[in-house]
Amino acid sequence: MQLLQKFTVLSSLLLLPLPALAVPVTDEVDIGGAVRVNYGWKDYDDNSKLEFELFRADVNYKSKDGLFASAQYRWYENMDVVHHAYMGYQFDEAQSVQVGVTQVPFGLLPYAAHSFWFGATYYLGFEDDYDAGIHYKNEQNGWRYDLAYFVNDEIGDGSNFDRYSFDAATTAESPYEEAGQINARVEREFTSGGVTHKVGGSLQYSQLDYMADVSSVDGEDVDSLAAAAHWQLDYEQWQLQLQYIHYDYDVKNSDRIALGAFQYQSDIAAEADVATVNLAKSFDVDWGPITNLNCYNDYSHIMASGDGLDDSIQNVTGCAVTAGKFYSYVDWIAGKNMYFAGGPGVGIDNGDTSWHSRMNINIGFYF
Questions:
Q1: How far apart (Å, rounded) are the C-alpha atoms in residues 9 and 24?
Q2: From start to end of the chain, where are the E strands?
Q3: How far is Cα 7 from Cα 72, in angstroms, rounded to an integer?
Q4: What is the average per-residue pLDDT within 38-53?
Q5: How sure is the predictor about 16, in pLDDT bands with cuts at 50, 70 and 90?
Q6: Where are the beta strands (DSSP E) in 80-175?
Q7: CB 68 within 8 A of CB 59
Q8: Among 141, 150, 334, 355, which is 20 to 30 Å from 302 by CA?
């Protein structure tokens, strides 16, 4: 984007009648954002550096009549993207509907992880994913029901990899684009013996268009099906997250499909099972400006079998640090055959499926 275009987008966001921890412009509108820097060290290259990571703008709106809206735009070092942008209506205390680029209701929400790096499910498009569509939510008597339909991904262009969410990428070898998706999710929350449980299940059915004009392989439109079961336990300052996913892209003549985000595309196994086991503990402290530590170990295992496929593992050990308006992560990421940790993709066998690791420190100022 040129400078004028960027200014126009930012101005539009700030003028939207849009809830965050931000500046109360009126009783109904809040404006906020964040600035973050990042340091990364990798054992598989010598490109360690401290750099600007993100500036973001948040605008949120909520009226006494039930109308609400929210938008977030992000500027990274090499790209700028919409994170989410939706408007909605709260029918009553239980029911609401939102339309726009909104979070896909699937699995553990809002995240199946505690770390800056999320879990492996994020890199498969099943965690913190945002698409364009309509989402109905009903929460009452300890139950939560979600039903959503998404027309396409947040951009509507599978060949554009400048995006936050991992979506089907349109490439010559994997010429597909998201073209309709239905999500259904149910969750039951209850407390027993001082332990709060959230137990639920999710289904996702999606269609992908075959883009013949960019294809170097024969193909046709395909379907995809994913199912998840999750269980979250909260006891005092401990949290345990368990999740199991099975997904299957019905791709013809291939065991792979491409996904794209953050300017790149990579292959994932077209069918796999994914197990997630996360454990975290929050500590209230009085260390000068530091008031809380949330330490965790997030483990994800992708089980894939087929021609040119192999398992992938991601394990993140770290702590999130709260100090006033600063929120920071210190993470050690170990990955076996894992994208963003020295691997070529997720569930892909390229001949080197060994372990690699990286340290990441992210410092953010949220306002």
A1: 21
A2: 23-24, 29-42, 49-62, 67-76, 80-90, 95-103, 130-140, 143-153, 167-168, 176-192, 195-210, 222-235, 238-249, 256-261, 264-269, 271-287, 290-303, 312-323, 326-336, 355-366
A3: 15
A4: 92
A5: very low
A6: 80-90, 95-103, 130-140, 143-153, 167-168
A7: no
A8: 150
Distance from CA of residue 184 to its chain's centroid? 18
Q: With 90 as the cut, is the pLDDT of residue 158 above it?
A: yes
Q: How far apart, in whole angstroms, are the C-alpha atoms of residue 263 and residue 164?
A: 9
Query: Which helix (H) or strand (E) element contains residue 141?
Result: none
Residues in the chain: 367
The pair of three-digit structure tokens given for residue 99, joined into one six-digit string:
């339309």
Burial letters for 6-30: b for 16+ Cβ neighbours within 10 Å, e otherwise? eeebbeebbebbbebebeeeeebbb
Q: How far apart are CA 186 and CA 137, in angstroms?
A: 10
CA distance 299 to 309: 20
| Nearest-10 Cα torsion for 108, 334, 123, 196 | 0
For residues 280 and 318, the answer to whether their CB atoms sit within 8 Å is no
Tokens for 216? 């170097």
DSSP 348: B
Q: How far is CA 9 from CA 12, 84, 173, in A?
A: 5, 14, 34
How would you list the strands of the sheet with 256-261, edge to edge? 167-168, 256-261, 264-269
- Cα 164 from Cα 155, distance rounded (Å): 10
**The predicted structure's pLDDT at residue 18:** 35
Asked if CATH classification 3.40.50.2300 holds for the domain at 35-45+89-366, the reply, yes or no, is no
The closest of 291, 105, 250, 262 to 181, measured between CA atoms, is 105
State yes or no: pLDDT of 251 exceeds 50: yes
Domain ranges of the chain: 35-45+89-366
